[in-house]
Amino acid sequence: METNILDIPHVEFIAQLVRHLVSVPPSHFQSPKRGSVALILRLVLPNDDSPFPSIDLTSHAQLKTPASLVQTLSVFLANPLLASAKAQILFIQRARYPGDPWSGHIGFPGGKRDPDDASDQATAERETLEELGVDLTNSSDFMYLGRLDDTRLYSLFNPLQMVASSSVFLQVCKDTPDMAISDEVASAHWVDFDHILQAVAQPTRPFSRTSRTIPVNIASRLFPAYRSTRPMWYRLFERVVGNVYYTVLPLKYTLQNSIVRATDHTASKESWCGTMSFSSDTELYLWGLSLSMLSSLVDLSLPVKPHLVHRAYVSVASPWPQMDPHLWADVNYFMNLAHGILWSPYRRKPWYVKVQQGPQGRTVGNNDDFFRTHFHVLRIAFPLSCLCKVAVLGYLSKLAISGTLKLAKLLSQTL
Asked: Where does the Nudix hydrolase domain lie (predicted)?
């Protein structure tokens, strides 16, 4: 019997997230280029006049162990005053700058790691302070819960570009500290966790009426130097290969829970690739790296087994990027079939933790990530599809030539 995920109290999601962040080891990948972001959660009471419980940090301040963290937060979240509280997560829209690949994108506060940063957590805290004016190191306002898996960033069909770490924080006070957003940020939005859970309760099928995607031109990504000149071979490649469509998760927001810096907010809604923008007057459009990070957080938050939620649920970042449905329907079919098997919730954390033995010793928790697994499958599906198409075209050409020769022979005999 399926469980309605929307009926579960939000404190249960937070409690489950804390337990998994402490008990499930996060992946860590070495890279000379590292970045770090902060995923910040808060609990909002239905009535502004309702009292907000205080958290007792005495034990955790003395011990500073994972067990003391779980114990402290378990007592805090079990308070009856929070029974009807709604969880929210903070997203930002980056300001538009010419030449910036992240211009206008929806994501989380954060940035590149500096040599002076002691850790990925320190990077996330420093960047959040610089971008939003929020001090995550203030223990009376925020608690550090733990770290999600590292997310590896790849360009299309190209090697690793950078590794991004995700640090999770929980606001433990009633009123969020005032924000002073910098020029790097266009706006900040607190989004209700219910809007994210909709993707769990009602999974979206590829290219359905409710699905949202961002098309990326494969030719322009592989051969950017020819994007403006567009020689004949480039146009032919573009027509044959088409686009790849990345999944978008729409997130509803309200101005009441937002801070907008841009005087002309429509400027941050400029269309991307001429097809869609990263935000509207009511929604934010999350995709790519940030959506993969959010998916990892949701994975560790679900307080029930995935098969009890929805039989079609795979992840909030699903489906994998799709090829052009008119040109590569066979590739999409194989990819979606493999996606349901290889990226099943039971093959991801917290249900499955990968253990590897390598030159550096035993490594626990370095599971494959969303886009890396997709790329491994695509490397098999795409060449096979091309070979099958060539074989079919060759066979049809052979039949056509054979039929033409027979017809010519028949006509010559008749004459």
From this structure: 68-213
Q: How many Å apart are CA 202 and CA 4, to the nearest integer?
A: 10
Q: Are 168 and 17 in contact (CB under 8 A)?
A: yes
- Sequence-ordered alpha helix ranges (H) in 242-328: 288-301
CA 222 to each of CA 8, 158, 191, 239, 256: distance values in angstroms, whole numbers, following the listed order? 45, 9, 35, 14, 42
- The verdict on whether omega for the bond into residue 350 sits within 30 degrees of 0, i.e. cis, is yes
Q: What is the DSSP letter of 54?
A: P
Average pLDDT along the chain, 415 residues, taken 10 residues at a time:
86 96 90 93 92 89 88 94 96 84 88 92 96 94 95 70 93 94 93 94 89 89 87 91 93 92 50 61 92 95 87 90 92 92 89 72 72 87 90 90 85 76
Q: Structure tokens of 137? A: 């190191």
pTM of the model: 0.89
In angstroms, the CA 226 to CA 228 distance is 6
**Closest to 286 (Cα-Cα) out of 235, 229, 247:** 247
160 HSE (CA, 13 A, CB side): 14
Contact (Cβ atoms closer than 8 angstroms) between residue 2 and residue 194: no
Which one, of 377, 380, 378, 352, lies nearest residue 367 by Cα?
Answer: 352
Query: What Cα–Cα distance (Å) separates residue 414 from each residue in 404, 408, 409?
Result: 15, 10, 9
> Side-chain half-sphere of 186: how many Cα atoms within 13 Å?
23
Q: Which residues contact 342 (CB under 8 A, 6 or more apart)?
A: 373, 377
CA distance 214 to 322: 10
d(CA 273, CA 244): 13
Q: Where are the beta strands (DSSP E) in 96-235?
A: 106-107, 110-112, 142-147, 151-154, 160-171, 185-192, 212-217
Contact 41, 136 (CB under 8 A): no
Amino acid at 295: S
Phi, psi of 85 (to 5 degrees): -70, 145
